[in-house]
Amino acid sequence: xxxxxxxxxxxxxxxxxxxxxxxxxxxxxxxxxxxxxxxxxxxxxxxxxxxxxxxxxxxxxxxxxxxxxxxxxxxxxxxxxxxxxxxxxxxxxxxxxxxxxxxxxxxxxxxxxxxxxxxxxxxxxxxxxxxxxxxxxxxxxxxxxxxxxxxxxxxxxxxxxxxxxxxxxxxxxxxxxxxxxxxxxxxxxxxxxxxxxxxxxxxxxxxxxxxxxxxxxxxxxxxxxxxxxxxxxxxxxxxxxxxxxxxxxxxxxxxxxxxxxxxxxxxxxxxxxxxxxxxxxxxxxxxxxxxxxxxxxxxxxxxxxxxxxxxxxxxxxxxxxxxxxxxxxxxxxxxxxxxxxxxxxxxxxxxxxxxxxxxxx
Amino acid sequence: xxxxxxxxxxxxxxxxxxxxxxxxxxxxxxxxxxxxxxxxxxxxxxxxxxxxxxxxxxxxxxxxxxxxxxxxxxxxxxxxxxxxxxxxxxxxxxxxxxxxxxxxxxxxxxxxxxxxxxxxxxxxxxxxxxxxxxxxxxxxxxxxxxxxxxxxxxxxxxxxxxxxxxxxxxxxxxxxxxxxxxxxxxxxxxxxxxxxxxxxxxxxxxxxxxxxxxxxxxxxxxxxxxxxxxxxxxxxxxxxxxxxxxxxxxxxxxxxxxxxxxxxxxxxxxxxxxxxxxxxxxxxxxxxxxxxxxxxxxxxxxxxxxxxxxxxxxxxxxxxxxxxxxxxxxxxxxxxxx
Lengths: 361, 338
What we know:
The complex is a heterodimer of chains A (about 350) and B (about 350).
Chain A: E1 6-17, E2 20-32, E3 37-41, H1 48-56, E4 64-73, E5 76-77, H2 83-89, E6 94-97, H3 111-120, H4 127-140, H5 146-150, H6 159-171, E7 177-181, H7 189-206, E8 209-214, H8 217-223, E9 226-231, E10 234-240, H9 241-246, H10 251-258, E11 308-311, E12 314-316, H11 334-344
Parallel strand pairs in A: 3-8, 3-9, 6-7, 7-8
Antiparallel strand pairs in A: 1-2, 1-4, 4-5, 9-10, 10-12, 11-12
Chain B: H1 5-28, H2 32-43, H3 45-65, E1 67-68, E2 77-78, H4 79-83, E3 98-102, E4 109-113, H5 124-140, H6 143-160, H7 162-177, H8 180-191, H9 195-222, H10 225-232, H11 237-273, H12 285-295, H13 304-331
Antiparallel strand pairs in B: 1-2, 3-4
Helix pairs in contact in B: 2-13, 3-5, 3-13, 5-9, 5-11, 5-13, 6-7, 6-9, 6-11, 7-9, 8-9, 9-11, 10-11, 11-12, 11-13, 12-13
């Protein structure tokens, strides 16, 4: 395997909070191959967005800071760069699109002005060239009447159109890696599919790599080549998409899958993972998933699990698969685990019920 | 036309602010956000009336600002002086509407002192008009110090936070912990008597409010997603501040500047009344009110000088406030539905 485009090693991003230091990203490692898509999946609050922001070194200051680790982009560590050197990378080699297309555009400028700025800021194009390319870019993201859109203001467009403009801005300098932080969460379902198709098409055309952050496994199946599952600031499982979908091994990943609605479960309650992600100031000492894990035993609360390679390409952080843990039980098979999860899923009381309802004539 | 340096400076400064504001507004009118605000302002009759009134005061001030010498008079006379030169000096304290006989060749006409005359027999209406220039100057010139200082420091403090913010906040906290009027008086005493000095003093003490406002607004915009998106595109800090944040601050800044003008006009009067404002020979409402202090004690009371000066002051301040409020209604993002 040749050197990956992006390789993140043991990245740690911490925050000072009134309750102590919050370890939002705590020892995350993954890599992205050129032209491929890596999806980072996980519940809210487990450090997905902070990982992406850390790559650009745009962690919200002054509370947040990058404690340590390495971010190798084309073999060079981005953390060695100064603020100004970093600025040259942002938008040119690494571009980012955000979750909220509604607020990610400056309300007082036309979209044309903002697109042109995106291109001229790195000196890659003169104003004249940029204005011409802006039209082509908008055509590429399939916005109708690009000439007119350039003269419009953000509030005159719908959410889907704005996200297309954001994508156009991100693509303006032909980045090698696109960071997409939940690009479709704020959009309607129908628009979501269009935007994802567009992203995939553009990826094939330009050969850029995509780091896709999402909590939607449906999107992962559709888009990603490789999946990293994050929990509580750590990657708990990292595998090629097909392999992960065929055989998820970490109890957390299995929990995520069990909570997906499928046809075979129609009519039954959905399994849920009990509890929520713990506070990032106060992660559990050993295994971070232990308090919520259906397969936990004594050791899980005592020793922190190692990051193991179970199969080639399949990385995992769980005692169940660690040969060095002597008292580990047999790892449950997928079917068994799913069954336990489904039966453990508490029956949720209906939110609204209408007793003895009779329709009055 | 010969002007001394100080007058020249003052006139330049006083023209600069309206010109800057008008240029900003004309440029901004092309944007839908501002075009909408402009439309709302136009519909507000009270605001338009206030604007016209401010315009009238302004024109009188302009007429009084252009002056030159001729061979008959030693002192330079302004256009306003020349326009009112026919009004005769009368007996001390003629009551309002008292008749006067004017004898210019070839006709004899009878006119009235509409607002009476003062202790020196000068027409009170003319004196009130002479006060316009001082009021407008003091209302506008300090803004040329307040705006750059307030906006610059406020934006730096809000955007960079940490040490910069600490330094700026410390500075203005120290400034505000001294009573304003004491600071003003001591500054004028140090800088010397004169209208330029008063403007300077008002500018030095007046930037705190605007700075605080701009700091808060910048703080709000700094973490907006469009700023984050710009940063992710590799836009430099300077460019983010000037191109992305500043235009979004303009509405609040313009409102606060217009409202601030009325405060400045009032402080001039107060300073002059206390004897640390503009020099007594200069026409100013503060001087008139100061003179009226003794007149009210007379029997019968001489009320017209006080009334004229305070009404003129009241109308100007009211206009500024009305315009400011109307601007707020027209552009305030919180009141705007979108």
